[in-house]
Specification:
Layout: E1 3-7, E2 13-17, H1 22-31, E3 38-42, H2 48-60, E4 63-67, E5 71-75, E6 83-84, H3 97-106, E7 108-112, H4 125-133, E8 137-141, E9 144-148, E10 156-158, H5 164-174, E11 180-184, H6 190-201, E12 206-207, E13 213-217, E14 226-228, H7 233-245, E15 249-253, H8 261-270, E16 273-276, E17 280-284, E18 294-295, H9 307-314, E19 320-324, H10 335-339, E20 344-348, E21 351-355, E22 364-366, H11 370-382, E23 386-390, H12 393-396, H13 402-408, E24 412-415
Parallel strand pairs: 2-15, 3-14, 6-7, 10-11, 18-19, 22-23
Antiparallel strand pairs: 1-23, 1-24, 3-5, 4-5, 7-9, 8-9, 11-13, 12-13, 15-17, 16-17, 19-21, 20-21
Helix pairs in contact: 1-2, 1-6, 3-5, 4-5, 5-6, 7-11, 9-11
The chain binds uridine-diphosphate-2(N-acetylglucosaminyl) butyric acid.
Length: 416
């Protein structure tokens, strides 16, 4: 998908089904390495990052069957060599999960430093601190990360920053370590809980996931399992914001409403109607939305991955809104693109001051990263006239069937 073209102004209505959670699916696919066995995974989103990860797993030696319905059979017992020096791992952040998984199963691993969206510095010092505390020797040389350990021994690890990636990587590395590992100041995101449940389904022993203290009791061996990935909190949040932006009436199915509370609460504060049902949520937008202030925070705070779509929405809402990005300092690159549409946003460091304008103008713009691209889609839905979003392949990395889902809701959108 090179380009997305949107004719703004259509009201969205109808139902949309949310796919499996990208940020849970990726560590789960890598986590099958721990099983040294066959796993069956379903509710996987069919997105660029999953296709790339399948290639990576195959290059390592895993046997993978991926069905377009989101079902995967994967056998990781055929992996012999935990070394992969290939540019493909730079295409995504989640390749760093090979570190924890291979270190745990093979006692060593070598991969290139991970890539991913350009949204800030993104160090992995907390991952490394965790591996070293478990007894691994870690070296980073010429862009290659090598970890090696004769034995991994349970330890107490206090994370200096709340990190999703470090929490998951340390959980994986500690799964088959001798004794107990305690991770303090752990991330609490829904996908941390999903990953812990997955490891436990393979015979692991992880307690406390979803709180800030996680206890991993090392086991000798894991085994294959069947597992279903949770729904995508961020995809669901994006459609909630899109519904509000397009003054629509949209039912978002296959969600866990609890995971969406930070988004629901903000939309309600803006004057949007949000109703929760068992596994769906209904969002009813209107023309009288109020400006609000938003601060991104680790879960259960407002997710950084929705800062960009939310900022786009607020750019067309009367009054002044202040958005503070506390997680990734470089997550405002898309604002320059939004400015071509006539928005009034001033970014100063981690803060964006948004003065809502009456009309956004359709323009030719460029997706800077995955969620920045989603923000431009939101802006395009609100704008007068045609918006052409170039470099739209960024968006495909994280949103399954975006165009057909939007078309079903009545958006005037096409891809080229
Ligand atoms: N950080 C460190 N040291 C570390 C690790 C993180 O200083 O060793 C800092 C980061 O620089 C950042 C903060 O800690 O300021 C949080 O980073 P975190 O490690 O939680 O993020 P991540 O694991 O790199 C994952 C998601 C991101 C999502 C963040 C936060 C994946 C593959 N990526 O990244 O998803 O924004 O958690 O929830 O799961 C996206 O989907 O668009 C995306 C960028």
């Amino acid at each position: 998908m090179d380009k997305v073209i949107i004719e703004g102004g259509s009201k969205l209505s109808g139902k949309v089904d949310i796919s499996g959670f990208k940020n849970a699916a990726l560590p789960i696919i890598v986590g099958t390495i721990l099983a040294n066995d066959k796993c069956k995974i379903d509710n996987l989103p069919m997105i660029g990052d999953v296709y790339n990860l399948v290639k990576i797993m195959e290059m390592l030696g895993a046997k993978v069957y991926l069905d377009e319905s989101g079902y995967m059979d994967i056998d990781t017992s055929t992996i012999r060599d935990p070394i992969l020096i290939d540019e493909i791992t730079r295409k995504m952040r989640a390749s760093y999960y090979l570190l924890g998984a291979c270190l745990s199963r093979f006692g060593e691993v070598k991969v290139l430093y991970p890539g991913g969206c350009n949204i800030g510095v993104r160090p992995i010092d907390q991952h490394i601190k965790g591996f070293e505390a478990l007894g691994a020797k870690v070296e980073v040389e010429h862009g290659v990360i090598s970890c090696k350990a004769n034995r991994l021994i349970g330890s107490k690890i206090y994370l200096d920053v709340v990190s999703v990636g470090a929490t998951i990587n340390i959980m994986m590395a500690a799964t088959m370590a001798e004794g107990t590992t305690i991770i303090e100041n752990a991330a609490k995101e829904p996908h941390i809980v999903d990953m812990a449940n997955f490891i436990n389904a393979m015979g692991g022993n992880i307690r406390g996931a979803g709180t800030d203290i996680i206890k991993v009791n090392g086991v000798n061996k894991l085994h294959g399992c069947n597992y279903s990935v949770i729904p995508d909190q961020i995809e669901a949040g994006t459609y909630m914001i899109a519904a509000a932006a397009a003054k629509g009436d949209v039912i978002i199915n296959n969600v866990i409403p609890k995971h969406l509370e930070p988004i629901s609460a903000k939309l309600i504060e803006m004057g949007v109607e949000v109703a929760e049902y068992g596994d769906s949520i209904r969002v009813n937008g209107n023309s009288n939305m109020k400006s609000v202030n938003v601060k991104t925070l680790p879960y259960p705070g407002f997710p950084t991955d929705l800062q960009q779509p939310m900022t786009a929405l607020l750019s067309g809402v009367k009054g002044t809104s202040i958005v503070t990005e506390t997680v990734f300092e470089g997550r405002y690159k898309y604002v320059d693109e939004l400015k071509r549409m006539g928005v009034d946003i001033t970014v100063d460091g981690r803060t964006a001051i948004i003065k809502g304008v009456d009309t956004l103008m359709g323009s030719k713009i460029r997706a800077t990263d995955l969620r920045g691209g989603a923000a431009l889609i939101i802006a395009g839905l609100m704008a007068n006239g045609t918006t052409e979003i170039e470099e739209a392949y960024h968006i495909e990395r994280g949103y399954e069937n975006l165009i057909s889902k939007l078309l079903n809701l009545g958006a005037k959108v096409k891809e080229e």
